[in-house]
Amino acid sequence: xxxxxxxxxxxxxxxxxxxxxxxxxxxxxxxxxxxxxxxxxxxxxxxxxxxxxxxxxxxxxxxxxxxxxxxxxxxxxxxxxxxxxxxxxxxxxxxxxxxxxxxxxxxxxxxxxxxxxxxxxxxxxxxxxxxxxxxxxxxxxxxxxxxxxxxxxxxxxxxxxxxxxxxxxxxxxxxxxxxxxxxxxxxxxx
Length: 190
Known about the structure:
Elements: H1 2-7, E1 16-21, E2 27-34, E3 38-44, E4 47-54, E5 62-68, E6 72-73, H2 77-84, E7 96-108, E8 111-120, E9 123-138, E10 144-155, E11 177-188
Antiparallel strand pairs: 1-4, 1-11, 2-3, 2-11, 3-6, 4-5, 5-7, 7-8, 8-9, 9-10, 10-11
């Protein structure tokens, strides 16, 4: 990321910049195995976040984000209601998923890792996202935008999301492993 690091710095003294997540151009998606044979995907429609970027030393940057659990969408209303219930997220009692970064490290090129605290159902665990910087540039409104993709895999049971059903032939209805993919567009704040 050395060449793009230069894009994330200024010709003058290093500065910290604040970037807000553009929810209309960002996605928070997840995927789980269903019945041990297929993958079911979903997304959260209401996400928010802020990145405070140290443009002189991006590893000193930090990110906070939240997701409204009730905004879960899988394309099937009955399944969405079940996911909002106490069997899974309990959206009424725990309305937000929260993330706060604790460490950002450069891997190579445009790749980074971001470690942070993820809270689901009031249970907080450390997770590591693989992050790819996708670019930075002007927008049509005279502002500036930057894009990132972040991925991780978690065990849902680590967060108290433990409902499952047994399959008669053996196995379970829902895998414990959940893949999370975030495609994030940030807008520089004045």
